[in-house]
Design brief:
With 218 residues, this protein is of the alpha/beta class. The chain has a single domain, classed as 4-Layer Sandwich (Purple Acid Phosphatase, chain A, domain 2), CATH 3.60.21. It is built from 6 helices and 11 strands. A 6-stranded mixed sheet has the order 4-5-6-7-9-8. Helix 3 runs parallel beside helix 4 and helix 5 runs parallel beside helix 6. The mean pLDDT is 97.
Length: 218
Protein backbone atom coordinates (compact mmCIF):
# COMPACT_ATOMS: atom_id res chain seq x y z
CA UNK A 1 0.00 0.00 0.00
CA UNK A 2 1.26 3.46 -0.96
CA UNK A 3 0.30 6.17 1.54
CA UNK A 4 0.63 9.91 1.01
CA UNK A 5 0.87 11.10 4.62
CA UNK A 6 0.35 14.75 5.52
CA UNK A 7 -0.56 16.87 8.52
CA UNK A 8 -0.99 20.48 9.60
CA UNK A 9 -2.41 21.79 6.34
CA UNK A 10 -3.95 24.85 8.03
CA UNK A 11 -6.17 25.66 5.07
CA UNK A 12 -3.41 25.83 2.45
CA UNK A 13 -4.57 24.73 -1.01
CA UNK A 14 -1.48 25.51 -3.08
CA UNK A 15 0.62 22.62 -1.66
CA UNK A 16 -2.18 20.23 -2.63
CA UNK A 17 -2.12 21.43 -6.23
CA UNK A 18 1.67 21.12 -6.27
CA UNK A 19 1.52 17.54 -4.99
CA UNK A 20 -1.00 16.16 -7.48
CA UNK A 21 1.29 13.44 -8.84
CA UNK A 22 1.85 12.07 -5.31
CA UNK A 23 -1.84 12.29 -4.40
CA UNK A 24 -3.01 10.54 -7.57
CA UNK A 25 -0.40 7.81 -7.24
CA UNK A 26 -1.28 6.98 -3.63
CA UNK A 27 -3.56 4.13 -2.59
CA UNK A 28 -4.49 6.18 0.47
CA UNK A 29 -4.12 9.77 1.68
CA UNK A 30 -3.85 10.17 5.46
CA UNK A 31 -4.24 13.48 7.28
CA UNK A 32 -3.04 13.76 10.87
CA UNK A 33 -5.04 16.84 11.83
CA UNK A 34 -5.09 20.64 11.66
CA UNK A 35 -6.89 20.63 8.34
CA UNK A 36 -8.38 24.13 8.52
CA UNK A 37 -6.95 27.60 9.07
CA UNK A 38 -9.97 29.18 10.72
CA UNK A 39 -11.10 26.00 12.45
CA UNK A 40 -14.41 25.93 10.57
CA UNK A 41 -16.16 23.20 8.63
CA UNK A 42 -16.24 25.38 5.51
CA UNK A 43 -12.50 25.98 5.63
CA UNK A 44 -11.78 22.28 6.09
CA UNK A 45 -14.25 21.34 3.33
CA UNK A 46 -12.27 23.39 0.80
CA UNK A 47 -9.15 21.40 1.68
CA UNK A 48 -10.86 18.02 1.64
CA UNK A 49 -12.70 18.71 -1.61
CA UNK A 50 -9.46 19.73 -3.31
CA UNK A 51 -7.79 16.48 -2.26
CA UNK A 52 -10.76 14.25 -3.12
CA UNK A 53 -10.99 15.72 -6.61
CA UNK A 54 -7.78 13.74 -7.23
CA UNK A 55 -8.06 10.88 -4.71
CA UNK A 56 -11.11 9.91 -2.67
CA UNK A 57 -9.31 7.31 -0.56
CA UNK A 58 -8.82 9.48 2.52
CA UNK A 59 -8.54 8.75 6.24
CA UNK A 60 -8.14 11.64 8.68
CA UNK A 61 -8.46 13.04 12.17
CA UNK A 62 -9.07 16.62 13.26
CA UNK A 63 -6.37 18.64 15.02
CA UNK A 64 -6.26 20.95 18.01
CA UNK A 65 -6.72 23.96 15.72
CA UNK A 66 -9.88 22.50 14.19
CA UNK A 67 -13.29 22.97 15.77
CA UNK A 68 -15.44 19.91 16.49
CA UNK A 69 -17.40 20.64 13.31
CA UNK A 70 -14.34 19.56 11.30
CA UNK A 71 -14.59 16.12 12.92
CA UNK A 72 -18.27 16.09 11.98
CA UNK A 73 -17.37 16.89 8.36
CA UNK A 74 -14.96 13.96 8.28
CA UNK A 75 -17.66 11.72 9.74
CA UNK A 76 -20.18 12.83 7.09
CA UNK A 77 -17.71 12.00 4.33
CA UNK A 78 -16.71 8.65 5.82
CA UNK A 79 -13.08 9.71 6.35
CA UNK A 80 -13.02 10.08 10.14
CA UNK A 81 -10.76 7.93 12.32
CA UNK A 82 -11.14 9.78 15.62
CA UNK A 83 -12.33 7.20 18.18
CA UNK A 84 -13.02 4.94 15.21
CA UNK A 85 -11.36 2.28 13.10
CA UNK A 86 -11.51 1.20 9.46
CA UNK A 87 -10.05 -1.74 7.57
CA UNK A 88 -8.47 -1.04 4.19
CA UNK A 89 -7.00 -3.93 2.19
CA UNK A 90 -6.60 -6.00 5.34
CA UNK A 91 -4.84 -3.22 7.28
CA UNK A 92 -6.48 -1.77 10.38
CA UNK A 93 -6.41 2.02 10.69
CA UNK A 94 -7.60 3.82 13.83
CA UNK A 95 -7.09 7.26 15.26
CA UNK A 96 -7.38 10.06 17.74
CA UNK A 97 -7.68 13.77 16.96
CA UNK A 98 -7.21 16.99 18.90
CA UNK A 99 -4.35 17.29 21.35
CA UNK A 100 -3.55 17.25 25.01
CA UNK A 101 -4.00 20.49 26.96
CA UNK A 102 -1.78 23.33 25.77
CA UNK A 103 -0.78 26.69 27.31
CA UNK A 104 -2.59 28.41 24.41
CA UNK A 105 -6.00 26.83 25.10
CA UNK A 106 -6.52 25.95 21.44
CA UNK A 107 -9.79 24.95 19.77
CA UNK A 108 -9.85 21.21 20.43
CA UNK A 109 -8.00 19.84 23.43
CA UNK A 110 -8.65 16.73 25.50
CA UNK A 111 -7.50 15.36 28.82
CA UNK A 112 -5.18 12.36 28.80
CA UNK A 113 -8.08 10.30 30.16
CA UNK A 114 -10.31 11.30 27.22
CA UNK A 115 -7.55 10.49 24.75
CA UNK A 116 -7.27 7.06 26.35
CA UNK A 117 -10.98 6.43 25.81
CA UNK A 118 -10.88 7.59 22.18
CA UNK A 119 -7.85 5.51 21.25
CA UNK A 120 -9.30 2.38 22.86
CA UNK A 121 -12.59 2.85 21.01
CA UNK A 122 -10.83 3.02 17.66
CA UNK A 123 -8.44 0.16 18.34
CA UNK A 124 -11.22 -2.19 19.43
CA UNK A 125 -12.67 -1.97 15.91
CA UNK A 126 -9.50 -3.19 14.18
CA UNK A 127 -7.60 -5.15 16.86
CA UNK A 128 -8.02 -8.46 15.03
CA UNK A 129 -5.97 -7.18 12.09
CA UNK A 130 -2.37 -8.37 11.82
CA UNK A 131 -1.25 -4.87 10.81
CA UNK A 132 -2.45 -1.84 12.79
CA UNK A 133 -1.75 1.81 11.94
CA UNK A 134 -2.50 4.69 14.31
CA UNK A 135 -3.30 8.11 12.83
CA UNK A 136 -2.97 10.69 15.61
CA UNK A 137 -2.66 14.45 15.64
CA UNK A 138 -0.65 14.43 18.87
CA UNK A 139 2.56 12.39 18.87
CA UNK A 140 3.38 9.99 21.68
CA UNK A 141 5.05 11.87 24.51
CA UNK A 142 8.83 11.83 24.04
CA UNK A 143 8.81 10.83 20.37
CA UNK A 144 8.71 13.34 17.49
CA UNK A 145 7.10 15.90 19.82
CA UNK A 146 9.82 18.38 20.81
CA UNK A 147 9.09 22.02 19.95
CA UNK A 148 11.56 24.81 19.12
CA UNK A 149 11.39 25.81 22.78
CA UNK A 150 12.46 22.35 23.91
CA UNK A 151 9.03 21.50 25.31
CA UNK A 152 7.32 18.16 24.70
CA UNK A 153 3.89 18.41 23.09
CA UNK A 154 2.96 14.75 22.93
CA UNK A 155 0.48 12.58 24.80
CA UNK A 156 1.60 10.27 27.59
CA UNK A 157 -1.51 8.16 27.11
CA UNK A 158 -0.68 7.62 23.43
CA UNK A 159 2.91 6.73 24.33
CA UNK A 160 1.69 4.15 26.84
CA UNK A 161 -0.78 2.69 24.36
CA UNK A 162 1.90 2.32 21.68
CA UNK A 163 4.23 0.57 24.12
CA UNK A 164 1.49 -1.86 25.18
CA UNK A 165 0.17 -2.80 21.72
CA UNK A 166 1.57 -4.19 18.49
CA UNK A 167 1.22 -1.04 16.40
CA UNK A 168 3.42 -1.15 13.30
CA UNK A 169 3.13 2.50 12.32
CA UNK A 170 2.00 5.71 13.99
CA UNK A 171 1.49 8.76 11.74
CA UNK A 172 1.34 12.00 13.72
CA UNK A 173 1.52 15.79 13.40
CA UNK A 174 0.96 18.76 15.74
CA UNK A 175 4.61 19.75 16.32
CA UNK A 176 5.68 21.12 12.95
CA UNK A 177 9.39 21.25 13.71
CA UNK A 178 9.49 17.65 14.96
CA UNK A 179 9.24 16.20 11.46
CA UNK A 180 11.08 12.93 10.96
CA UNK A 181 10.93 9.22 11.72
CA UNK A 182 11.78 7.54 15.01
CA UNK A 183 11.17 4.21 16.75
CA UNK A 184 9.19 3.91 19.98
CA UNK A 185 9.87 0.36 21.07
CA UNK A 186 8.76 -1.65 18.01
CA UNK A 187 6.54 1.07 16.52
CA UNK A 188 7.67 3.44 13.77
CA UNK A 189 6.52 6.98 14.63
CA UNK A 190 6.53 9.34 11.65
CA UNK A 191 5.79 13.07 11.68
CA UNK A 192 5.66 14.60 8.18
CA UNK A 193 5.88 18.17 9.47
CA UNK A 194 3.67 20.97 8.17
CA UNK A 195 2.09 20.38 4.78
CA UNK A 196 1.34 24.11 4.73
CA UNK A 197 5.10 24.40 4.26
CA UNK A 198 5.11 21.61 1.68
CA UNK A 199 6.34 18.73 3.85
CA UNK A 200 4.95 15.22 3.42
CA UNK A 201 5.85 11.53 3.73
CA UNK A 202 5.61 8.82 1.09
CA UNK A 203 4.99 5.53 2.88
CA UNK A 204 5.13 2.03 1.40
CA UNK A 205 3.40 -0.35 3.78
CA UNK A 206 3.90 -4.07 3.20
CA UNK A 207 5.98 -6.81 4.78
CA UNK A 208 8.42 -3.97 5.45
CA UNK A 209 7.77 -0.25 5.88
CA UNK A 210 9.63 2.24 3.73
CA UNK A 211 9.24 5.97 4.43
CA UNK A 212 10.62 8.81 2.36
CA UNK A 213 10.32 12.45 3.36
CA UNK A 214 9.47 14.95 0.65
CA UNK A 215 8.84 18.63 0.18
CA UNK A 216 7.06 20.53 -2.55
CA UNK A 217 6.55 24.24 -3.20
CA UNK A 218 4.12 25.85 -0.81
Amino acid sequence: MKIFAISDIHGALRPIENALSYIRDADLVTISGDISKSGTKEDAAAVIETIESHNRNILAVHGNMDHQEVKELLEQKGYNLHADGKIVDGIGFFGVGGSTKTPMSTRCEYSEEEIGVFIDQGYNKIKEMRTAVLISHAPPYGTRDRSFFGLRGGSKRIARFVREHAIRLCLVGHIHEANGVEKLDQTIVANPGSFRRGRFLSVELGDEIHIEAGRIAS
